Amino acid sequence: MSTPRCIAGIDMGGTRIKAVLHNAANDEEIDRRIEPTGDTGEATNGTPPWASAIRNLIEVWEGQHGVIIEAVGIACPGLAARDGRSIEHLPGKLEGLVGFNFSDFLGRHCRMINDAHAAMLGEVDSGVAQGMSDVVMLTLGTGVGGAILSNGQLLRGRIGRAGHCGHMCVDAWAEESGVTGTPGSLEIAIGNYTVEARSNGRFPSTLDLINALKHNDAEAVAIWERSIEALAGGVTSLINILDPQAVVIGGGIAEVGDLLFEPLKAHLNRMEWRPGGHAVDILHASLGEWAGAIGALANIQQPK
């Protein structure tokens, strides 16, 4: 009996690695795991801890399941090189990742992709956007990520910057700028990393804000309403520019459910241009934290 030849999809974040092992021959999932990234650890013989963690996982899987992992799709923050062999730009995270060649390091074919781009591919492959050809995705978490599928193709742009919807400007007169230098970005308006500043120090996290919101705290209601209105403005702009079938919203903040989607849709009833009464569907991402790994798996299976 021949040794099964498999592929892996890996989503590498700042704290955790989410990984899926897949038998491409019979289209069956074999295993999925979550491991620590080890980003705060020290390099061993010049090898970053996150690279060692991925190599160790590949070796464990091959030994435990008796398979050969021929190819690995890797999703992570940053702008992926056009050839998919490395990350070309990544501000302030995962030291050593820029220019790191996983194909050489792991000794097998690897392909890199931005994590929000991967989440989009995951939702189109087997999630809420399955079968769609024109979709915008926003991931609301510590920051705001995004991706665009246009005519069935993931929009990457000239340097891989396309789809970074969190860095769109929703307030040109704002004093604060994000990591890209864009003032008043959508990420600043709703990302978790700014909620303490947006609440003048009262709420250290979006979870704290939501808990207060559930108790009808007036200040929490006002802050949340302003954030959702900015999100609606951003979604409206994306709809006007891209004319998608749907806007998919995922990430940790989206897990509050109706507390986000009901006021968002109410604002869109006022803001959205709807020729002939056509309203774009606003959908809650369905794959949760596994979207990036599943999307990385889908990406490694695409033709070069």
Helix content: 25-40%
N-to-C SSE string, H for helix and E for strand: EEEHEEEHEHEEEHHHHEHEH
Domains, number: 2
CATH homologous superfamily caption of the largest domain = ATPase, nucleotide binding domain
Could you give the order of strands across the largest sheet?
Answer: 3-2-1-4-7
Low-pLDDT ranges: none
Question: Would you give the CATH topology of the largest domain?
Answer: Nucleotidyltransferase, domain 5
The chain-level mean pLDDT equals 93
Sketch the major β-sheet: 5 strands, mixed
Distance between the termini: 30 Å
Shape: globular
CATH architecture of the largest domain: 2-Layer Sandwich
Radius of gyration: 20 Å
Strand residues, percent: 15-25%
The top level CATH class name of the largest domain? Alpha Beta
The number of helical runs is 9
Q: What class would the helix/strand composition place it in?
A: alpha/beta
Notes on the structure:
By secondary structure, this protein is an alpha/beta fold. The chain folds into two domains: 5-119 and 290-301, Nucleotidyltransferase, domain 5 (2-Layer Sandwich), CATH 3.30.420.40; 131-286, 2-Layer Sandwich (Nucleotidyltransferase, domain 5), CATH 3.30.420.40. It has helices spanning 49-65, 102-106, 115-126, 186-190, 195-198, 206-214, 218-242, 258-271, 291-301; strands at 5-12, 16-23, 28-36, 68-76, 79-80, 87-89, 109-114, 135-140, 144-150, 153-154, 246-250, 281-284. The strands form three sheets. It has a five-stranded mixed β-sheet with strand order 3-2-1-4-7, sandwiched between helices. A hairpin with a 2-residue loop joins strand 9 (144-150) and strand 10. It is globular, with a radius of gyration of 20 Å. The mean pLDDT is 93.
